[in-house]
Amino acid sequence: MHFNIEAEQALLGHIIMDNDFIMITGAEEEDFLDDNHKKIFTYINSCVKNSAPANQISLTQFFESLDLKGYIATLLGSINCLINATETLKILRELRYKRELEEITLYTNEMLSDACKNSQEIKESIIERLEVISNKSANQSVSFGKSAREAFSKEKVISISSGYKAIDGIINGFDLGDLVIIAGRPAMGKSCLVANMALRLAKQGNPILFVSLEMKADQISKRMISCLSSIHLTKLKNNNLNSQYEFEAFQNAITLADSLPITIEDSGGITLPKLRYQIKKFVNRTKGKVVIIDYLQLIKHKTKGQRVDDVTEITNTLKELAMEFNIVIIALSQLSRAVESRDDKRPMLSDLRESGSIEQDASVVIFTFRPEYYLERQKPDDAVKLRQWESEMQRLKGVAYAMIAKVRDGQCGDAKLHFEGEFQRFSEFDNN
């Protein structure tokens, strides 16, 4: 058993003499194994939270209620064996983590003996429990001075380009720790836009983790090759290249793809613990700063509660992961059908489907919008109106907008882009 009663006694004795130690170090009940020590710590902690004294005199009655008359003197006497209270807490916490790992080992053996559990379920459950311990042991505190120096250090990477000048001109790029939501109705090109962002950033040498929950890796790859080669996506899908130019363009695109640091993870039904594991592995292996998720509503939740509550937990976790690993997470989101029932098809923040806390958790929200798509479906029968419609269709051909609807530290606005659906490509808009 991972237990040190002398260390527990000495630390409790120190806490009785210095109640502020709890607030300064973040000591917790779980750091103690002995049941009475847990009760003593919890009582002292409640006194501290209520600004009540917790000293030898005020604690006497509580100790007597535990049938521990005289034990307070034992704890105070143990202080003589204490060299450094903070180091003693570290020792107790290390023992605590070993006990928790031992519990996971027992739990794993129970799961393995359960014929109803498959290996994937067991693995994800173990990862989730291990990550809980990992999160507890990580010390994220930093002094203001150090934080300020790092924030203004010229060598420190503090933002990542979106890959588009038109977007960066409005939001100044994405800050590390940002959760970026890109949302749109079907056919608005949201998946295409993030695939193009991945290509543009990868060309600049940025490693990218592309987590696809909707398409397989080969489908994404074909779309990206179409973009790089300017070969119609349908031709690539049907393996129908019929000119020397297309063969050469295809080979050049494949060669370029080999050099781009893009990792595609296409295991459907991914859970939050598994997603965290994939991100951690990616960051440790590549030092990458960008993770793309297509799309967040397809992340598998461990419980089947209200969908709004599930999405809330998913976006909360994504934001936590972005901050924990100091990366940018770009997550796609669906929009509700409310857009289709309005005359003005431009999306709004209220259109975020099953929104939960999407808007609240996101640092940046971008909507993809192609007015050409909606106008195309409003072709009139009247000859005069038809000419006006054709003129407007010509004006809007290929026009797309990345509508920045929320920026935590910046301004909102619409970035005008050029969309080529046949090549699955968004490019900078040329006003000429």
**Main pleated-sheet profile:** 9 strands, mixed
Shape: elongated
> Structural class per helix/strand content?
alpha/beta
**Spatial extent as radius of gyration:** 29 Å
**Which regions have little confidence, pLDDT < 50, spanning 5+ residues?**
none
Give the strand content. 5-15%
Architecture blueprint of SSEs:
Elements: H1 5-17, H2 20-25, H3 35-49, H4 60-65, H5 71-77, H6 85-112, H7 119-137, H8 144-151, E1 159-160, H9 165-171, E2 174-175, E3 179-183, H10 190-203, E4 208-212, H11 217-229, H12 233-237, H13 244-259, E5 262-265, H14 272-286, E6 290-294, H15 307-324, E7 328-333, H16 358-361, E8 364-369, H17 371-376, H18 383-396, E9 399-407, E10 413-420, E11 425-428
Helix pairs in contact: 1-3, 1-5, 1-6, 6-7, 7-14, 10-11, 11-13
Give your account of this protein's structure.
The protein is α/β, with parallel strands linked by helices and 432 residues long. It is built from 18 helices and 11 strands. Helix 15 links the parallel strand 6 and strand 7. It starts with a helix and ends with a strand.
